[in-house]
Amino acid sequence: MYNCFDIAKQFLKLANEENLGLEPMKLLKLTYIAQGWYLGFYDKPLFANNIEAWKYGPVIPDLYHVTKRFGSRNVDIETLELWSDNKLKSTDQDFIKAVWNVYKKYSGLDLSSITHMKDTPWYDSYEPNVSHKIIRNDIIRSHYKKLIDERRNQS
Questions:
Q1: What is the spatial distance between Cα 149 and Cα 33, in angstroms, rounded to a whole number?
Q2: pTM for this structure?
Q3: pLDDT at residue 155 above 80?
Q4: DSSP character for 51?
Q5: How far apart are CA 74 and CA 96, in angstroms?
Q6: Which of 2, 22, 145, 147 has its CA 20 to 30 A from that of 39?
Q7: What does the pLDDT average to over 79-89?
């Protein structure tokens, strides 16, 4: 299994290929969203790191603490090289690219709004004044499976 840095690094590679940058918020949200869709489609996590329900949304603390120093500036890929040690399988690279192609047009704030909606894993898990509340993978999986079913029923 990968770690969150492996996934985030792949998003940075894709952004660099298109001469785009990713600030920490957008990178965090993309990595979280990729985990959600992967759980929904494959019933297993894409990466092992915990996701927590913080006041301002779902956060992957390990990734947050490494990238927060960038503030609103773009994260450089070299920062993640120290933490990323797994080579992604081509099928997983393709999966991340599919997520990228859908969500790259959104800003970090847009993605944050998407992950804060009513009936999302964050919404169902967040408790004010509770620190380090983990959003369980089964809750994330259930939410994304529901989204997959809704999209299939629309077709």
A1: 17
A2: 0.96
A3: no
A4: -
A5: 19
A6: 22
A7: 86
Q: Which residue is associated with the tokens 């840095």? A: 5
Structural domain span for residue 47: 4-154
3-state helix, strand, coil in the chain (%, to 5): 60, 5, 35
Question: What values do phi and psi take at 91, rounded to 5?
Answer: -65, -35
- Per-residue model confidence as pLDDT tens digits over 92-142: 999 999 999 999 999 999 999 999 999 999 999 999 999 899 999 999 999
Contacts of residue 105, Cβ cutoff 8 Å, sequence gap at least 6: none
Q: What is the DSSP string of 121-141?
A: HHHHH--TT-TT-B--HHHHH
Who contacts 45 (Cβ-Cβ below 8 Å, separation ≥6)?
1, 35, 38, 39, 137
Q: Return the closest-CA partner of residue 54 out of 118, 138, 123.
A: 123
Residues 6+ apart with CB under 8 A from 115: 29, 32, 33, 57, 58, 122
